[in-house]
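User: Some background: our group keeps a shared notebook of sequences we're curious about, and every so often someone picks one and asks for a predicted structure to add to the entry. Today it's my turn. The entry only has the sequence so far, pasted here. Could you supply the structure so I can complete it?
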Amino acid sequence: MSFPDSEISFKSDAIKEEIFVYKNQYSIPQIISKSEADGYFMLGFMHSQDRLWQMEALRRQANGTLAEILGREYIELDVFSRLIGFNRISEDVFTNLSEQSKAILKHYSDGINFFIEKNTKRLPFEFNLLDFKPSKWSPLDCIAIQRLFAFEESNSFWNDLAMTEIAEKIGVEKAKQLLPYYNLTAPFIFDEQSSIYQSLRIDSAKIKDTLALSSKKMKEKEFTFFKEKESEFANLNEKFFEIKEKYFTSNAIIGSAAWAANNKKNKGAILVGDMHLALTLPPRLYQVHFTSSEFNLVGFSLPGTPLILSGRNDYISWAMSNAMVDDLDFYAEKTDSLNADYYYNSKNQKVKFKFIADTLKIKNQADSVFYIRLAGRSAVISDLQNLAEIGAKNSKQSYSIAKKYLITFNWTGQYKSDEFLANNKILKSKSWYQLKAALNTWQVPAANFVFADIKGNIGDVPAGLLPLRESSCVPWLLNPGWREQTNWAKSVKIQNLLTIANPKKQYLIAANNPISRKYTQFITSYWDIPSRAIRGDSLLSKYENYSFSDAQNMLRDSYSPYSKEILQSTLPLLQKHNVSFSTLEKNALLYLKYWDNILSPDQIAPTIYKTFLEKLISNTFQDELGSSFLAFTNTSHLHYAKILEIIHLEKSDWFDNKITNKIETKEDIVLKSFKDAIEELKRNYSKKIDSWKFYNLNSIKLKHSFSEMEFYKHAVESDRLSMSGDFSTINFFKIKNKFEAIGCAGRMICPMDEDCVYLSIPGGVSGQPLSGNFTDQIQLWLSAGFIEIPLSKEPALNYTLFIKAAPQKQ
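Assistant: Of course. Here's the predicted structure to add to the notebook entry:
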């Protein structure tokens, strides 16, 4: 065990002056140092003390070295990570960092390495079980983890793969119909007035083409270049999605919400942060109070990096919410027909691939060498298809997949940037203007930085790199890489284009909705359904004096405008057939009719509604999409958005089942979906409707990476937790599979007229299962409860001294 049960004292030549660490009952540390350099050293030490295995797993995932400690089954993930190139990117980024950022990363890494060095015989149990010791930590590891986090926060990779597969199956124009429109009466972040929406439905007479560049058509004949490899692409896509399902839980279901509101009574402001990530044990975020001569702050840090993603200092508070920028495009690279070592670049010039010999270390096996092919944009990620040959005895890697066409990508995360400098400047900011200036070097992940300060100001600074595409670049499809007009013309920083402070309505909410009505440049085709933004806007518009309790109640809110819209269009059709329904079907219909659209665990109606909704989607789209249906439902929330869009229409070709001779109508599909849902609920539960409580459908176990090991699972995972809400509610929750989900990974409330911050996470500060602080925040988190953390530079009375560190010379 590496978690101590008594006060620690040590000396180190890596620090200049004394550092003190105090902890409260939840083991949340307050680091007190005279310099930020020493503070970052201690942040690295504390992250290691509590989360060393989590950090090790993340750096190995990013660098593609998990198979070395976990065996052959992780070869796919290792090769995938190396093809994305997190390790190569981190090297490029490091060379471009400011000296200040390099110093921060060095001090942070020194703290990690000092902990490892002094605790080689007291490492977390995972290291002992796998029989290895962590190697020295490097600043490059911090950058790789930051880029991995940025990749997790992007949905473009998986969505574009899915849409390309669908376009290949049903045609480009038909596939384009699956990209939904954003309702113009729903809230935009920068709206000065409260939303005037009447419903979530789209008025077809007032549709604005929110697809922008997507509307610049790629003709069917231009897309046939990849149809030649249809079966191979489908197989490749299947492999990509297998990796996603196993290892990238949060991708393509990304989210987060942040909002700020004024209190007119005391002229103050409140900031609320609600970050959505994969729900795991330990959680991805780590609470910390960080005090030095340069700053004093409380917030959420990201273990493995020195970043404080959301928090508050003595002057301002900030919270991140995903800006939904479409930051990645795929390209088909055409190889030379006579020599596959060459491809044609965007100017249609023949260029030789760069080959990198890479070595995979595999537990209990000899090392295996494979080659990474680099084109101008990226590695050839379609070479993932050759995995069966990697690690096989005496194998020689071949390139059987797509000899004529290969797949590469362009991602803003490959570009040089300095998020560490930006973050450090945020910690020292005293105003909205300083926050905006601080974010100048922030590029990935693109995020809204929602803001409030002690003077009652509120605002939002969207920050990130936005690709500006050439005229023929289709953002959601595989593009021909040998055509110059499909390139990215350039990239711009959205923080230089869009900001807002003190909107007239005296609040704003960023819930993955569009930023500004005035900005017409293409940002994404993948805006989230506006249900959460609409509900948030509606609630915020009602408050004169927004308070902590109001914010807490909003975070608990599980009312779904989306479900109301779906049922308003489907219940009348079902009621027409009520006479012919069985007793069970009639009772189920009554539950839906009188439901209040709140998804709470002890209700029956949400179970019926959710099962009905899934059947409605599959019965509408699966006949056209066939095997690509799974790819479609793996994309963000496109399937939920599209069914909402067409369910209000009298007619749509999507409702006709192409497999049957009959031409089905919307009414036919709604009726079939309802009956199918009731049959499924009978099979899964019983014929007794009282047993259909929502907690049966909407529950999870928070899992550790060793949860699959039968001997350890009961010690390392939580009990089954009944959850409220879904993807359409402010209290966000989305099940990935039976016991894994995406949800709120960290809640924060910052009342700027108080000298404290309120935080909670789904688990605890400690990553060690035998610690009392492994799961001690779960019940608080479930109920949107909070731990109050004083902002005082001196430790509060309920904090006890945990560490005293001094320079070696003393």
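Suggested note for the entry: The chain has two domains: 1-560+698-810, 561-597+602-697. The two ends are 29 Å apart (CA to CA).
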